[in-house]
Design goal:
Length: about 525
């Protein structure tokens, strides 16, 4: 030990004693002790960043999580640690709009969810967290316009699929410049896989994620990325999961097919869902039953209204679905199917959303007065025949594996006269743009809405461009596909039209990569026809 090391060690022991003293008074009183504000840490405990999400016209959820290494170094393991949150009108926090103290607890991995309500609508705010003498970075967020308001525009980015080892999150550095109202994240925030060397661009630490502790570590790894942190700090996010937040290709209560088999899949799913809660700016009520071990389920679907201009629906196509149809040899997971030899494929009982979510969505459609109805869900909605040689072959993992459920969704749009349905998706790791047909069995049927299925932030495409071009030829309701580029989409909704810009990083394996526009589309209001304009 050098002299400096000794000094640090002595200092940290002293610090630990101080913190322990304060922490016990915290436990007793539920309030920070008098010296708590002076408490210093070995390093900043807010190294996992900050985030805001689940915006409404008068509320927002603010999130952070204390760095577990920091908590342990401070000798606070196993104790509650008070965290102050502040929401202000200005970046200097001289005009505080709301503030409070939350006890972060080890049972929830020292996560903090401040659910703020009673705020001004259509308003921008700054926020931060404080613990002892440490302060988090300052985040920016906003509330949505009042329900009756008529905002002039809504600008959102949609993104999905960011496998750590496949690349860097440079896309988010460019997303910062897009002047967004919000981000819609559509699943595969992380992958449960271990590192696959030497293919990986950067190492995934920790092996398989399959327990509460390993899911937490995997989220913490992702949250350490500076570009991802910066984008979370820049705008509110609406976030859904897909399969990889639990296990590749799982279906409802049935396990998927990655990694060594785990005896109790539902225990694994509960752990994964809890870790999701601990790392996302989502509402406690939707996870309460799961956290208190009264339910295996947690609710991530819901709707948010952006005045009269748009209503955003976030769906969950993973938690309540029936198993994939006609996998060979009774295997779990996904495969491709030939509908002529898979009777169950067309069974009207089969569901992707579950009946409760389906009924809820139809009621939402019935009562919607929004001009644009934006449906964020995990995967590709439109039918996509994979056989380009004259036969028929579908993936059984997306809507193509659940055709009757898809038809019910489309029928609900038609029957409720839903205005301007816009479906946004992910999962494909490829950009697909197309028209939603009233009935995919009839290729000449009318377009009832439009679909933008996004590429990935980093995850690799499944097919090459040549194959995508062939698929466009046999699936003409899709007007554009790109498999080459990673990135995100930006949609700007205005009263007269929407404009979608597909943004592509030149090279997702380079953290400083430049970005370019891959293609641009417009759709006029009340006319579900996509124009490619760039
Ligand atoms: Fe993915
Ligand atoms: Ca997926």
């Amino acid at each position: 030990m050098t002299q400096t090391d000794t000094r640090i060690a002595t200092a940290s022991i002293r610090r630990r004693q101080i913190i322990q003293g304060i922490a016990s008074s915290v436990t007793l009183l539920g309030l920070p002790g008098t010296n708590w504000g002076k408490q210093s840490w070995a390093s900043n405990p807010f190294s996992l960043g900050v985030a805001s999400g689940a915006p409404t016209h008068d509320g927002i959820v603010l999130w952070t999580r204390l760095d577990p290494v920091c908590v342990e170094a401070a000798g606070l393991n196993g104790q509650a640690v008070p965290v102050t949150w502040q929401l202000a009108h200005d970046a200097q926090f001289s005009r505080i709009a709301a503030q409070g103290v939350i006890q972060s607890v080890p049972a929830l991995a020292y996560s903090v969810h401040a659910e703020v309500s009673g705020l001004a609508s259509d308003h921008h705010y700054f926020y931060r967290f404080l613990a002892g003498s440490a302060s988090s970075t300052t985040g920016k967020t906003r509330t949505f316009p009042a329900p009756e308001a008529r905002p002039k525009s809504l600008r959102l980015a949609y993104a999905s699929c960011q496998q750590w080892g496949n690349g860097f999150y440079g896309a988010y550095r460019h997303m910062l410049d897009e002047n967004l109202d919000m981000v819609m994240y559509l699943g595969d925030y992380m992958y449960e896989y271990p590192s696959s060397r030497p293919k990986d661009i950067r190492p995934t630490t920790g092996g398989w994620a399959n327990t509460l502790e390993t899911y937490r570590q995997r989220y913490a790894l992702h949250k350490s990325d500076p570009d991802l942190q910066a984008m979370h700090a820049a705008a509110p996010w609406l976030i859904a999961w897909d399969d990889h937040e639990v296990q590749n290709d799982y279906a409802g209560t049935q396990k998927g097919n990655s990694g060594r088999p785990i005896d109790d899949f539902m225990a694994r799913r509960r752990a994964a869902y809890q870790a999701f809660y601990e790392h996302m700016p989502v509402r406690r009520t939707n996870f309460e039953a799961l956290i208190s071990e009264h339910s295996d389920n947690a609710k991530i679907f819901g709707s948010s209204r952006f005045g009269q201009l748009a209503t955003l629906y976030l769906l969950d196509t993973r938690q309540y679905r029936d198993p994939q149809a006609c996998n060979p040899n009774n295997k779990t997971g996904s495969s491709q199917l030939d509908p002529s030899s898979c009777a169950i494929w067309n069974d009207p009982q089969r569901t992707l959303l579950g009946s409760q979510q389906e009924n809820w969505l139809k009621r939402e459609f019935e009562s919607s007065s929004a001009q644009w109805n934006v449906i964020g869900q995990q995967t590709l909605l439109g039918q996509r025949n994979l056989d380009t040689q004259g036969g028929v072959r579908f993936s059984n993992n997306g809507w193509d594996g659940y055709p009757r459920a898809r038809q019910r969704l489309i029928d609900a749009m038609i029957q409720t006269k839903l205005r301007n349905p816009v479906v946004i998706g992910g999962d494909m790791h490829e950009n697909w743009v197309g028209h939603i047909l009233s009935d995919y069995k009839v290729p000449t049927s009318t377009s009832v809405g439009v679909e933008f299925c996004g590429t990935s932030i980093t995850s690799l495409a499944h097919i090459n461009q040549e194959k995508a071009n062939e698929m466009l030829r046999v699936n003409p309701h899709f007007i554009f596909a790109d498999t080459e580029y990673r990135g995100y989409g930006v949609v700007e909704f205005t009263p007269n039209r929407l404009r979608t810009t597909l943004r592509a990083v030149d090279d997702a394996t380079n953290p400083r990569s430049a970005i370019h526009t891959l293609a641009e589309f417009t759709v006029e209001s009340d006319k579900p026809q996509i124009q490619k304009v760039g």
